[in-house]
Amino acid sequence: MPKQTFFNLPEEKREKLIDVATDEFAKNSFNSASITKIVEKAGIAKGSLYQYFEDKKDLYKYILELSANKKKEYLIEWMNRLQHLSFIEMIRELYVKGVAFAADNPRLAGIANNFMKENDTKFKEEILGISIEKSNQLFEQLIENAKNKGEVSRNIDTKVAAFLVTNLNTSIVDYMLTYMTYEEIFQNKEELLDKVDKMLFIMENGFKAK
Amino acid sequence: MPKQTFFNLPEEKREKLIDVATDEFAKNSFNSASITKIVEKAGIAKGSLYQYFEDKKDLYKYILELSANKKKEYLIEWMNRLQHLSFIEMIRELYVKGVAFAADNPRLAGIANNFMKENDTKFKEEILGISIEKSNQLFEQLIENAKNKGEVSRNIDTKVAAFLVTNLNTSIVDYMLTYMTYEEIFQNKEELLDKVDKMLFIMENGFKAK
Amino acid sequence: MPKQTFFNLPEEKREKLIDVATDEFAKNSFNSASITKIVEKAGIAKGSLYQYFEDKKDLYKYILELSANKKKEYLIEWMNRLQHLSFIEMIRELYVKGVAFAADNPRLAGIANNFMKENDTKFKEEILGISIEKSNQLFEQLIENAKNKGEVSRNIDTKVAAFLVTNLNTSIVDYMLTYMTYEEIFQNKEELLDKVDKMLFIMENGFKAK
Amino acid sequence: MPKQTFFNLPEEKREKLIDVATDEFAKNSFNSASITKIVEKAGIAKGSLYQYFEDKKDLYKYILELSANKKKEYLIEWMNRLQHLSFIEMIRELYVKGVAFAADNPRLAGIANNFMKENDTKFKEEILGISIEKSNQLFEQLIENAKNKGEVSRNIDTKVAAFLVTNLNTSIVDYMLTYMTYEEIFQNKEELLDKVDKMLFIMENGFKAK
DNA sequence: GATGAATGAGCCTTCATTCAT
DNA sequence: CATGAATGAAGGCTCATTCAT
Question: Is there a domain that residue C53 lies in?
Fold first, then answer.
């Protein structure tokens, strides 16, 4: 929720600021990110930033939201087809889109990633606007549906399964961003997608030999 | 590797400092943790801390190591029985011990947890003393063995499976520490262990209904 | 190379800061000079100084450069007449201007003087921007020319003579600044210039009785 | 003037401390030299040092004096023959011994050298025990004598000549220690002595072509 | 609306010296 | 006599935020 002044800015200036802030928050935690560096790189006055945004947190929220919106574009197709896909197909597509997003927009993905790592729960809920609890409920619903359709075993615990699905999603992207350079990610996109398939195979069938 | 002076300290003082530092590093990332706050809470002069430790990193390493050692005590039994357990039993025990450790020592677990979240790979490898790559190899070996014994399906990819196992382990503890109060953790230990079992059931058998 | 912010400062404030910093660097080596004392005496916030200058070294470079520029004004006439003067006249004028500069601007001269005393060669070359070696070559050239014109004996070693000329120049000013109060320097300017002449007489004719 | 306790020390310990302190004061100005580093390298308790010496200054005085005494050994021969040498021979020998001393004991020479560079006149006189003025008088006397013997021209100014002689002496050694590594000094001793001769030739005969 | 200077608390670290044991 | 823990001021530097212009 930037102030109106921000949207009155010439597009070039606005984009530059967004770009620079994205970079900073992709590389640093909220605390470590430096407003000073952002305004320096963006070539704007420090005071100006405080005319566009309430404070550091406000800027952060905005950048995080942009990243989330960009990701939604990747997921929109997935969401539209939720009904028509089998559960595993759904998850596969979710992961695939997630990895593709991170591969194509490593900085945007990095922001969300760093956000997930923040320790301060109050801070996170304040930023999210809703409780973490709530944000996890989508998957529980999807799993319940899949159980009803007979696609997912009734023997597994829904909440636990939802937790597992969400965390693996996060872990994959985290791995990419933390241990691979942007270049490596870019060059190995196919390979990464292949690994996603292998992971889903495990999730679908389990470890156990039959 | 604190200086000798640290070990010459009266136990009470030493414990107080460890306690306070543990607290700070459990609640903050390395960068955000404050030496100033630590010495203030410990009631010692700032200069004194530098008589005990080389620098902030040295203190951090020590506290992290203490946490690791404490955790090793929980895992020692697991390690001794590695040969005699089936793969799923092994993983279950690993997770169970991990959760138990975090439930009994939430702050110590929090330190390791925060360490995992650090973005700076060089920093992490410097602290660890070995490469991240290397530290992940144990599980790959365990999975290979399990495949050979016929416990784990040959159809699954070893590296991916190892990644999955490690990350879930981390995620569980992270979840506990981030979204539950110490009190909640303590009161729901049984319930948490039950969830571990449910997760392992999924990992063993997969999502798919049969 | 101060930041633009420094030049945007009201002249009074800027001059005050320059004055105070000049004082500190005239009285102390680079290491011993204190940023804290400078800002206190200048009556500005510590953070402000870092809005004007990159760091201590940046401030130092600037102050040193100011001193050098001021000295250049004294030497500009000398440099313009290099061709038309005999060697000894050249040296005399150099020394005379140097002494006059130090007498009129003891603090500015003191800064350059302290710089010469720094032990760390790398530091000095970094500040100078060129190698020490190079900065000494002017005199060697002048002496060679003088030899060719028959003004200076071919029997003397050029490099050694250049060393001698440079070091005496430095020594004289050093002596003034170290062992005389600013007041004494000011009151004895004539006397000092007379000593310069006496020294040049020795350098011209040597110690030896004929 | 160390305390008696210092002399009661086992020789090995005493020598180690001297050695380490020598090193520190050879590499740093009085201010920059670190007591902490000295005791660490010497392997003694910090408190101990303050039982041997009054304070940092006291230690410094002692180390400086040791260096002076060592140098006196080099100069003793020179002093004994003062009467029998011509003026230029005297100076030559003084310089030669000085260079030889610095070549053989660069650290000891470095201490004296750093001392000369100190800005605080009061500090220097306090350390020296006598006024700088006084310490320069020897040469004036020697020059006067040389004039009387007809070796040195009556046309030169005694005080100025004395200043010149002393400062060149210092400058040569300073040059060696600042711009040459210990190894280079050691390997080029002959060459350095040759330069001394060349410088004395200039001082004897002057620049002027005849 | 834009500016950017000013702020002062905070950062980690080093210092010479003291003094209880 | 030796120890080394304790001290707290000082070191250079960065921070997010404010506010007069």
Answer: no
- How far are the Cα atoms of C86, C96, C141, C145, D191 from residue C83, in angstroms, in the given order? 8, 18, 12, 10, 33
Tell if the CB–CB gap between B32 and A29 is shorter than 8 Å: yes
**What is the C-alpha separation between D112 and D67, in angstroms, rounded?**
7
Q: Which of B63, B77, B71 is nearest to B99 (CA)?
A: B71
* Residues in B 90-119 with any Cβ partner in A closer than 8 A: 114, 117, 119
Residue C147: closest CA among chain D residues belongs to which residue? Answer: D209
Structure tokens at A167: 């965390």
- When divided into structural domains, chain B yields a total of 1
Amino acid sitting at position B110: G
Q: Which of C13, C90, C82, C102 is nearest to C51 (CA)?
A: C13
Q: Buried b / exposed e across B170-184, counting CB within 10 Å, b at 16+?
A: bbbbbbbbbebeeee
> Residue A29: pLDDT above 70?
yes
* Beta-carbon separation of B210 and A154 below 8 A: no
Secondary structure (3-state) at C15:
helix
Does A56 contact strand F, using a CB cutoff of 7 Å? yes
Q: Name the nearest CA neighbour of C141 among C158, C160, C164, C128.
A: C158
CA dist B9 and C170 (Å) reads 54
Determine the Cα–Cα distance for residues C38 and C27; give it in Å rounded to an integer.
12
pTM of the model: 0.86
What percentage of chain B reaches a pLDDT higher than 70?
98
Residue B170 lies inside a defined structural domain of this protein: yes
Please give the DSSP secondary-structure letter assigned to residue B208. B
User: Quick one: which H or E segment has residue C87?
Assistant: helix C87-104
Q: Do chains A and D touch (3 or more CB pairs under 8 A)?
A: no
What is the C-alpha to C-alpha distance for residues C202 and C95, in angstroms, rounded to an integer? 14
Q: Give the torsion through C-alpha atoms of D44, D46, D47, D49, to 10 deg.
A: 70
Q: What is the mean pLDDT of residues D66-79?
A: 87
Query: In the numeric block, which tokens belong to residue B150?
Result: 């016929």
D140, D146 in Cβ contact below 8 A? no
Give chain B's end-to-end CA distance (angstroms, integer).
55
CB-based contact, D201 to chain C, within 8 Å: yes
Dihedral sign of CA atoms D33, D34, D38, D41 in order: negative
Instruction: For residue A154, give every residue at least 6 positions away whose Cβ sits within 8 Å of its Cβ, in sequence order, or none.
Output: A147, B209
| Residue C173: inside a domain | yes
Q: Identify which of D55, D185, D199, D193 has the alpha carbon closest to the alpha carbon of residue D109.
A: D185
Range of the domain at D200: 63-205
Residue D22 falls inside a structural domain: no
CA B151 to C1' F3 (Å) is: 62
| CATH number of the domain where residue B93 is located | 1.10.357
- Please choose, from the candidates A58, A156, C21, A153, the residue with its C-alpha nearest in 3D space to the C-alpha of residue B197: A156
Do residues C121 and C114 make contact, with C-beta atoms less than 8 angstroms apart?
no
Q: What is the overall mean pLDDT for chain D? A: 88
Q: Among B130-144, C75-89, D157-171, whose mean pLDDT is lowest?
A: B130-144
Contacts of B11 (CB under 8 A, 6+ apart): none
Q: What single-letter DSSP state applies at residue C29?
A: -
Partner residues linked to C152 by β-bridges = D208
- Percentage above 90 pLDDT, chain B: 40
CB count within 10 Å of CB A4 equals 7
Distance CA(B6)–CA(B3), nearest Å, equals: 6
Tens of each residue's pLDDT in chain C, 210 residues? 899 889 888 888 899 999 999 999 999 999 999 999 999 999 999 999 999 999 999 999 999 999 999 999 888 888 888 888 888 888 998 899 999 999 999 999 999 999 988 988 889 988 887 767 777 788 898 899 899 988 989 999 998 888 888 888 888 888 888 888 888 888 888 888 998 999 999 998 988 776
